[in-house]
Amino acid sequence: MEKLLVMILGMSIGIVATNAAEGDPKPKPNTPPAVVRKLPESLQKYDTNGNGKLDKEEVAVLQKERQEEALKKYDKDGNGQLDDAEKKVLSEDRRKERDEMIKKRQAEVDKMEKEREKK
Is residue 82 a contact partner of residue 1, using CB atoms and an 8 Å limit? Predict the structure, then answer.
């Protein structure tokens, strides 16, 4: 059961890390300042060395915090572990979050394509 929880949390962290990886913390020469991307604000607190990336140790802290949050939110019987029903709710919530993120990203892509077609 714990392996499933770790897998689910790992997948959600993977989504977060993927979002963070969209921006290159080391911009190419002559990149205008407006184009330089940073880690999303939600991840900046984990970047303890300030390099603009999440290294293994920083990701481990993020994972541990996410696991603790999941237990607080989904462990309804308070036994410190998620049973099958609690894991199912967690999984459904994560799926909804992922689907919402995908819709948001698709809307952004559609908007960019429309703007490009106007030119």
Answer: yes
Domain that holds residue 96: 2-118
Closest C-alpha to 18, from 78, 102, 111: 102
Sorted by sequence, the CB contacts under 8 Å of residue 91 that are 6+ apart come out as 8
Confidence (pTM): 0.54
Comparing CA positions, the residue from 70, 43, 47, 66 lying closest to residue 57 is 47
Tens-digit pLDDT profile for residues 34-51:
444 566 777 888 888 888
The CA–CA distances, whole Å, from 62 to 1, 67, 114 equal 21, 9, 37
Q: Work out how many domains the chain is built from and give that number.
A: 1
Alpha carbon 17 to chain centroid distance? 5
